[in-house]
Amino acid sequence: xxxxxxxxxxxxxxxxxxxxxxxxxxxxxxxxxxxxxxxxxxxxxxxxxxxxxxxxxxxxxxxxxxxxxxxxxxxxxxxxxxxxxxxxxxxxxxxxxxxxxxxxxxxxxxxxxxxxx
Length: 117
Hints:
3 helices; alpha+beta; 3-stranded mixed β-sheet; two-stranded antiparallel ribbon; single chain; 5 strands
């Protein structure tokens, strides 16, 4: 069931947090993944949550502003970024267009919104 899958994922994530300070280079050395130029060696799908409200900030009297930057290419097969800005949840989907069609990502987004509700 979805609930069971969520519990398993939660356990794996909590276990992973115990090793969050490990340098990436050390992780690659331990895992020794097969290298390919067609995909990232360790991470194909990324979920990123920025839960610090960064809508307004200053540093030594200088104002800091969020800037959205379009890359044109994705570093991962699929990336979902969530951010809290001005008490709103902003979702950004980034994906490899060689692997996913826009309609597929839109369907994922609709399903994810349903889960959040």
